[in-house]
Amino acid sequence: MRNYAEDAKVFKALCDENRLRILEILRGGEKCACVLLSDLQISQSTLSYHMKILCDSGIVVSRPEGKWMHYAISKEGSLRAAQLLVELTALYGDGDSCSCCNA
Amino acid sequence: MRNYAEDAKVFKALCDENRLRILEILRGGEKCACVLLSDLQISQSTLSYHMKILCDSGIVVSRPEGKWMHYAISKEGSLRAAQLLVELTALYGDGDSCSCCNA
DNA sequence: CACTCACATCGATTTTTGTCAATATGTTTT
DNA sequence: AAAACATATTGACAAAAATCGATGTGAGTG
To answer: Which residue, among B1, B12, B14, would best test binding to A if mutated, counting the most A CBs under 10 Å from its CB?
Structure first.
């Protein structure tokens, strides 16, 4: 039995344009919030909001260092997300048609 | 240069509980709308709305047959989605830290 | 210890998404 | 051609998500 709400959370992280932009930046390696903020046209509170969603999904991990926050793509989290996607769309059995209507 | 809106569309298809339930049903093979409708506690118009989103994402394909509509998971679409996820989270270069703050 | 700086949280607002009933469209059957 | 049926679309509304300014929190600095 699946927890659809939990599964959906992972993909919610990926369905906002700004969060995809953030990931694009993080693909180059770990970045601190100030870099992200200067690259995106959003306010500081909005960035914080998005980073929370990305971290909660497991795709991004954070590392506090003094008063700065560093963010990076999590290889494990990304892999889990990709595996989840594959699972959710994998056919099982022989996948024959239903015969409810066109019988 | 990426089209984030287009990329996001794929994942939007996966971030609603009802759409994940629909996919779970379709994993067993092609189904017509009436089967989906009877399995889910949603109205006919709501089902139609969700199917449109799933089809637009490429993850599901539809096949009209007379007055009935058959839906199935698209292997190609699913694969593209999984590849997209991998791309969007793939690190490039050596992925070293930024040195903007903690210099 | 007061001050500053970076980030998180809160409250309010706007935008987007999901939902349904009603209606339109298109197909089959009589 | 009309009736019946399956699905799509529309319009209205409710719920959720994104955004920002203001404020709170906690770490470094003078």
So the answer is: B14
